[in-house]
Design goal:
The protein is an alpha+beta fold. It is built from six helices and eight strands; from the N terminus they run βββββαααβββααα. Strands 1-2-3-5-4 form a five-stranded mixed beta barrel. A three-stranded antiparallel β-sheet has the order 7-6-8. Helix 2 packs antiparallel against helix 3.
Length: 248
């Protein structure tokens, strides 16, 4: 029985060259979650192959017709095209650094190949906003993305910040009245800004949160610690040093 054909949207996470002209592409799909696809001939210099490999850059948003079988680890794509044509992400150095950071965070969090439509919608929306955003929103978007992503993986940070609860305990994922007995916490402006970022419902609201790039770097490091405390084998973010440099 042949594999069934399905229409689905996808976000490209990773691309590896395969053979002379092909790619193996890891894609977070709306219908099936994370899947690996063998895409033949897209690196060929023929008229048919020219420029096709561009569509498989990390963070690309695609519309696809795919063959799917639960029994196969490597699926096939019948048709693919841009789902949303970026104007800036693939060419603007800063926006690209933010996009690849978001891709890495997403990749580290998604462990199972099961569908997750709400997560897909959140991620797709964030990438589209990043492409269209001004410099202030783009610079704050990694913070927003890092804080709102845990909602989909069961370790959401509780926004119970108040004038008396000013310590953000990264182990507990909530604000406390006293500084914790361990080292993993934020206080002062770092805690307050984290609360503001947690309150933001849409990326557009990030324009109101004006931060210095050194301050952003400190928060990004703290949020990396938060993930490492709550996700087993999270490790270090490879894209973070680049992002820190570029946001400077």
């Amino acid at each position: 029985m042949p594999d069934k054909l399905h229409k689905t949207k996808g976000i490209v996470l990773r691309t590896v060259k395969y053979g002379e002209t092909s790619l193996i592409v890891t894609i977070f799909t709306e219908l099936f979650g994370v899947q690996a696809y063998l895409v033949n001939g897209v690196r060929a210099s023929t008229k048919k192959g020219a420029g096709k490999a561009n569509l498989f850059q990390p963070s690309a948003l695609l519309e696809m017709v795919v063959y799917h079988s639960e029994l196969k680890q490597l699926q096939r794509i019948k048709e693919f095209r841009w789902g949303f044509l970026y104007q800036h992400i693939l060419t603007d150095v800063r926006k690209n650094a933010v996009a690849v950071y978001m891709v890495e965070l997403l990749t580290k969090c998604i462990r199972q190949p099961e569908p997750h439509p709400e997560l897909f919608q959140f991620a797709e929306d964030a990438f589209m906003h990043l492409d269209e955003s001004n410099a202030m929103i783009a610079a704050n978007l990694p913070l927003y993305f890092a804080l709102h992503l845990p909602v989909f993986f069961g370790f959401r940070m509780q926004d119970n910040f108040s004038s008396s609860r000013t310590f953000l305990d990264l182990q507990e994922g909530s604000f406390a009245t006293d500084n914790p007995s361990h080292l993993h916490y934020l206080e002062g402006k770092q805690a307050e800004v984290t609360s503001q970022l947690l309150k933001a419902q849409r990326p557009a609201e990030l324009e109101q949160i004006k931060l210095h790039h050194d301050f952003r770097r400190g928060l990004l490091a703290a949020y990396e610690t938060y993930y490492a405390l709550h996700l087993q084998d999270f490790g270090k973010m490879r894209t973070l040093p680049v992002l820190r440099e570029i946001l400077g």
